[in-house]
């Protein structure tokens, strides 16, 4: 492992450090999903909640096709549409926001040492 320069150590100790890192760090260090994996988790979430989301098997299969074709923006747009109707009413049922909050769980467990 590379040695951390003293100047960076001091800035860290004084809480005066703002790290700027690429997405790969959050994926490897925090265990967060990359975009394709996040889409697949969304598809799994939608499949598990098909009844509450009022979506069809065909809608899920269209999402899976978008994921296989690496059409991430299209896939996320379709996924969001599945939750669009539920946003109009107050509900405790599965929601787009709840899905993303569940994905953030790994971040809350991080500790910087």
What are the key terms here?
113 residues, mainly alpha, 8 helices, disordered C terminus
Q: How are the elements arranged and paired?
A:
Elements: H1 6-13, H2 23-30, H3 35-48, H4 50-53, H5 57-68, H6 72-87, H7 96-103, H8 105-108
Helix pairs in contact: 3-5, 3-6, 5-6
Radius of gyration: 19 Å
Order of helices and strands: HHHHHHHH
Number of alpha- plus pi-helical segments: 8
Give the low-confidence spans. 106-113
In total, how many beta strands? 0
Overall pLDDT level: 75
Helix content: 55-70%
- SS-derived structural category: mainly alpha
Description:
By secondary structure, the chain is mainly alpha-helical. It has a domain at 32-108. It has helices spanning 6-13, 23-30, 35-48, 50-53, 57-68, 72-87, 96-103, 105-108. The radius of gyration is 19 Å and the shape is elongated. It starts with 5 loop residues before the first helix and ends in a 5-residue tail after the last helix.
């Amino acid at each position: 492992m590379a040695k951390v320069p003293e100047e960076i150590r001091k800035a860290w100790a004084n809480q005066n450090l703002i790290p700027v890192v690429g997405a790969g760090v959050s994926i490897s260090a925090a265990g967060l999903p990359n975009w394709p994996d996040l889409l697949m988790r969304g598809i799994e979430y939608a499949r598990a909640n098909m009844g509450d989301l009022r979506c069809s098997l065909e809608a899920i299969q269209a999402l899976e096709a978008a994921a296989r074709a690496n059409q991430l923006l299209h896939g996320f747009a379709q996924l969001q549409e599945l939750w669009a109707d539920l946003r109009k009413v107050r509900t405790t049922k599965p929601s787009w926001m709840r899905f993303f909050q569940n994905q953030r769980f790994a971040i809350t467990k991080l500790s910087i040492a």
